[in-house]
Structures are given as C-alpha cells and as structure tokens.
Amino acid sequence: xxxxxxxxxxxxxxxxxxxxxxxxxxxxxxxxxxxxxxxxxxxxxxxxxxxxxxxxxxxxxxxxxxxxxxxxxxxxxxxxxxxxxxxxxxxxxxxxxxxxxxxxxxxxxxxxxxxxxxxxxxxxxxxxxxxxxxxxxxxxxxxxxxxxxxxxxxxxxxxxxxxxxxxxxxxxxxxxxxxxxxxxxxxxxxxxxxxxxxxxxxxxxxxxxxxxxxxxxxxxxxxxxxxxxxxxxxxxxxxxxxxxxxxxxxxxxxxxxxxxxxx
Amino acid sequence: xxxxxxxxxxxxxxxxxxxxxxxxxxxxxxxxxxxxxxxxxxxxxxxxxxxxxxxxxxxxxxxxxxxxxxxxxxxxxxxxxxxxxxxxxxxxxxxxxxxxxxxxxxxxxxxxxxxxxxxxxxxxxxxxxxxxxxxxxxxxxxxxxxxxxxxxxxxxxxxxxxxxxxxxxxxxxxxxxxxxxxxxxxxxxxxxxxxxxxxxxxxxxxxxxxxxxxxxxxxxxxxxxxxxxxxxxxxxxxxxxxxxxxxxxxxxxxxxxxxxxxxxxxxxxxxxxxxxxxxxxxxxxxxxxxxxxxxxxxxxxxxxxxxxxxxxxxxxxxxxxxxxxxxxxxxxxxxxxxxxxxxxxxxxxx
Lengths: 263, 350
Ligand code: SF4
Ligand code: SF4
Ligand code: FES
What we know:
The complex is a heterodimer. Chain A is of the alpha/beta class. Chain A folds into two domains: 9-91, Translation factors (Elongation Factor Tu (Ef-tu), domain 3, Beta Barrel); 97-258, Rossmann fold. Chain A has six helices and 15 strands. The longest helix of chain A has 13 residues, at 114-126. By secondary structure, chain B is an alpha/beta fold. The longest helix of chain B has 22 residues, at 324-345. At the A-B interface, strand 4 and strand 13 of A face strand 4, helix 4, helix 7, strand 10 and helix 10 of B.
C-alpha cells in the first residue's frame, strides 16, 4: 500500500507548562525539521485531530500551545510528563525568513496568535543580526489570558515591544487593542521592511487596514490563517477558500493573496 | 467484442465473475425512500442482474463504493494507530457515463491534490472497473450534455438492458475468455445527446467580476430556502469532503477507531474551528461556496473540466426543491450582466 500520509506517530511529552488556566504548552521530544509558522495535526484523544501550530522549535524538541476549548474536556489536558502524544506533520508553508533578512520586521500578534510567531521571535532573539530591527506588538484580552509571560519579558529587552490588554493597563502592559498601537511603529523611518500579522480573523483584518492607513504597502504584509482542518493534506475540503487550500498553500499568505481569499 | 445474452445466461456468468469480483449496482430498497411508500435506489452488492435497477436514476451515486459514507482509517490503542484492513477483491460497479466522469473528479481530488495520493481512496479505487449502463433518454433533472459528461470511453464492459435479454460490449480483454462461447452481436453503447434541461455555465471573466459574484443578492434568497441539510452533497457523485473523528470503544476511551465520514459544505459547522469561530455563516454563503466550487473553483485550480457532472441528483434529493440547474442558469444570467457592465466600464464592446 501507498505510504499512509494519515498515520500519526507517538512522541514523548517532555514537559507541560500551564500558560493560563486554558492554555498549556506541551513540549515533546521530536528531532523533526520544522520551519517557523508550520503546524502539526495533533491527535486529541476522544476527538480526533486538530491543526496546532508549532510554538517552539528546539534541536530535539517541539512545543505546541493548545487551548482547552469546546464542550469536551478532553484527555489531552490530563496527560502527564512521560506520556505519549500522537501527531503527524509538519504541514504548511512558513514565514519567509529569506525575505525578512537584512530588513526591519514588525510582528503584530493578538491572543493565541502569539503562538505561531513565538518560535520566529525566539529565532530573532538569538539571531538579531539577521534583521535590522524588530518591532513587536502583542495584545491579549485581559491579564488572565497573557501567554508566554517570561518570553515577553525577554523579548522586551531585545526588541521594540509594545504589550497591550484590551481594557486595562498593568505594569508592562498598556491598554487598548493592538490596532490602536500600530501608528506608533516608525514605518516612515524604515528603508525596507515586512509586517507579520497573526491573530483572530477580525483582528487580522483591522490590523492590516490600520497598517495600510499608516502607509504600509500590501506586499509587505504577511498573515497566518487559522481554519478548520480535518486532514492537512488537501483531501478533506474543510480549509478551502475559493480555489485555495489553506493547508497546502498556507497557512502563511502575503496580503496581496490573503485579501483575495473571499469566504 | 459484443454479445447478446439472456438474463438467465448472464446470471450464470455473473456467478462466475463473483468468484473473483465484488459486484455493485443500483438496487431497489423498498419503502426506504424519503417519502412514505417510496423506494430508495442506491448501490449495494448484487447477486443477479435482475437486482439491477437500470431504468431509473439511482438516488445515491456510486461514489460510496470508493469513498464510503463512513470508513475506519485506524484502530487505535494507547500505544499505536494500526491501519484498517481492506477486502483485497477487485470490484465491478455498474455506472452511468456522468458517474464515470464524477469519479474522475474524485480522482483529481484524492489522488492529485496535495503532495501525495490519499491511501484509503487509492486502495479502493485501484481495484475498481466500470460496467457502463446505457441511459436511454436520460431523466428530467439531468444536464450531462451541458457539462460534457454524456459520453465516455473509460469502461471495461457496457450494457444495454432489453427485456429478458441484454447486450454487452466487452472492452477489457481480461473478460473475453468468460464470454468466448456466447452469441456475438453488433453493439456499442449509445449516449444521450440532448437533455430536456440546458444549463449555461457562468463565464467569470475577471477578478472584479468574481468579487461581484460573491456579493450577488441572489445568494441571499437561499437563506430562507436552504435547510443546510446537506442532502444535495450526499447524493453528489463529485462531492469529496469528509471529517475525521475518533470513536472510542473502551470505557476509558483509550482504544477505538479513527473514522472518516462524509461532510457537507452546506452544514453550518463545516468551517467551525475548535473554540467556535466559523466562516460562511449563512445558508446563502454556503450555497455560493458550493455552487462556485462546482462550476468555477475546481476548474480554476485543476484546469480542464468542471467538478459538477450534471447528474442532477442534488436537485432530485433537495427537500426544498432547489434545482441546481436553475441556480446555475440564474447565476449565468447575473454573470452575463456583470461581464457586460465591466466591459462597458472599460469602454470595450461586448
Ligand atoms: S452538483 Fe448536482 S448535478 Fe452536479 S454532479 Fe453533484 S449532484 Fe450531480
Ligand atoms: S439539499 Fe437542498 S435544502 Fe438541503 S442543503 Fe442542499 S440545497 Fe439546501
Ligand atoms: S485541511 Fe483537509 S483539505 Fe486542507
């Protein structure tokens, strides 16, 4: 029989970090080559599979930050260190690091959208010489939904960072939606640059519009799409928008393409 | 070569064929139809050619032979995912010309889209041979001629039923020995060359027109009509979408089956993600998605033919009497208007 592209493999869980009440980061032992922005199909016991973006990449481990959602409180969240997690991947394209090289980079992330850019940010944290500068805006709903608090502190020390909560200000966090802070980015002072926007669909749309208003051209904007995906290999049809399959051609799209994907 | 056989003689030969093949054809299931006292015609394993319903269009398509309604992919335990088993026997399936085209559309999706073939589809598809059934005049919801799917040469055997006998063309040489001592006849299947219905396909000429097509008020008219039941996509031979989920069969949920089940883009939850956010929230938006996939997106992606093969089963099955042919003609009228407007705006005459 043809190689079974649907077969998940077992990976050992090395660690589990509770980021918030609802979000856990699972660190699994995996010596797999993964690019920033790619995702895996993770088997959720009693449910099936769901696309989860890689939130951390190490030499012999990967991290996935998963939100406990829906009616079913599934067994994934009762797994412990040493247990096995079944998954297959990586899938999808990734952020264009070659395109980013030597230029200024702006990363705008909202809520769980911080997960898919975390490994990218960590990469530049270690290799800041690859780009001219990094501006990072991260927004969360409230103090209870802040993800990767320790990383955020690190990032603030090395990048130009603006952190914001929707309705309150606390030390280290301003208040307001991410869109309200975009005008603070010194786009006019950049020679050449790119903007990465990741978050809920509405947030991405308004953040992109706000960037355009601030003189950013469409070609400079990159987005990562989240969709219902049952297969991740271009068969099940769930992720299709027009003639595009997000699992195959995405999840990362340049805005010139993203704006043409009409739901 | 072609032969003339009595139904009883054909049954004797069918018995021999059944030693090596599993044979599927449309069969009647009495009183199992959608309305009381109606029958259901769908595919199942036959034992006699008399089982075959050849003078009606089957309510469900033959796709379930290759893409079953529900299929186990893996048996899982805490420690492994073991691939499900499959019957090794080759399959013979009685189909219409449009169905053969429809299965070619499924081939495109399952075998070509993405980087690799779908192993579950392929393992069934590789074993399938077609017996073409002549359509005669066709039926009143068919529009195969408009879709260019009324003819095909892609079959192993072709059959015309004629009362107590049948005419059979044997194209696939592997079947020749079986018929070596039968009475030969002069027979080639005839294809429908005109349907009662004619469908005009939309010719969306530019990106701008496509955007306007998305915004057409005609889609909203389905918000109240379409029930989002998905009966149309279930009956459709070229609809391929599915959802995978796990079914536990032990108390602790640690062992079970990973299955896939047909899914429908008309269902409300088709795009809904864990957490509840979804896209295409209205029946009209979903009808637009299905319609454009059938007659625009598929061709835009793969080139060549449209996904819809004009079998008309969606129209037959819709509890709200939504005619897909009428939907397409309505859309084409609107697209003509949009194309004309676009041409007028750029000063080019049409
Ligand atoms: S869309 Fe309707 S007419 Fe077209 S192939 Fe599917 S069921 Fe047949
Ligand atoms: S069968 Fe008719 S009512 Fe049901 S989803 Fe299809 S178009 Fe809508
Ligand atoms: S997730 Fe199945 S086709 Fe993209």
